[in-house]
Write a structure and sequence with these properties.
The structure is a homodimer of 106-residue chains.
Chain A lengths: L2 E3 L12 E7 L4 E7 L4 E5 L5 E8 L2 E5 L2 E5 L3 E5 L5 E4 L6 E8 L4
Chain lengths: 106, 106
C-alpha cells in the first residue's frame, strides 16, 4: 500500500522553497511545499491545471486572482486554471503546505 | 478568493458516512469524509480516477489493493485507478478524511 507520513517527508533549504513529492501519477501531482521565513512561490498561472493548497503548518499569505489572504493550518484554497496564484511566508516560522495539481502538468 | 476552514465544514450522521464537498471543478473533486464509529466506505474501484486520502482526525483502516493498514492523522495514501479501495472506522472515535479524486468523475 502506498502511504506516507507527511511529517517525515519535509525538507527545508535556506536557498529556496522546497517542493517534496508525495504522490505522482498521470492524473495528479501531490507535493509538500516547505517554506522558510521569507521564502515564496512567485505569482504564476497554469492554463490547464487546477491547484489546491492546504496549510499544514504555519501561516502563509496567498495571492490568488489578485486577492491576498493570510491562511492558517486547516485552511484550504483553490487556484483554478488560468488564475494567477502564489504564496509567501512573511512570518517568523516555517510553513508547510500540501499541494494538489490536476491534471498532471505535461 | 475561494478558501475554506475545513473544520467548519464537517458534518456527521448516525445514518452513514458523510461526504462534504470542499472544492469541485471539471479537473478534480475535493471532499471531507466524516465517519462515526462503525461507519465505512465499502471497497470499490474507479477505472479512470486516482483517489488520495489524507487522515485529518482519528484513525481508520484502509483497504487498498487487498492490503489493510491502520492510518493516523498526517498520513496520506493513494488508490490508483482500477485498484479496489475502501475505508472503515473501527475505532471508538470520529474519523475525518480529506479526499481528492482526479479527474472528476463524469
Amino acid at each position: 500500500m502506498e502511504y506516507v507520513f507527511l511529517a517525515e517527508q519535509r525538507r527545508f533549504s535556506s536557498e529556496k522553497l522546497q517542493k517534496v513529492p508525495v504522490f505522482d501519477s498521470d492524473k495528479m501531482l501531490l507535493d509538500q511545499y516547505c517554506l522558510e521565513p521569507g521564502q515564496a512561490q512567485r505569482v504564476h498561472s497554469h492554463s490547464e491545471q487546477d491547484k489546491v493548497y492546504l496549510v499544514l503548518e504555519g501561516q502563509a499569505v496567498f495571492s490568488i486572482g489578485g486577492d491576498e489572504e493570510l491562511l492558517a493550518p486547516g485552511m484550504a484554497v483553490i487556484a483554478r486554471a488560468g488564475v494567477p496564484h502564489g504564496v509567501r511566508n512573511d512570518s517568523a516560522n516555517r510553513v508547510v503546505l500540501l499541494v494538489v495539481m490536476a491534471p498532471r502538468p505535461a
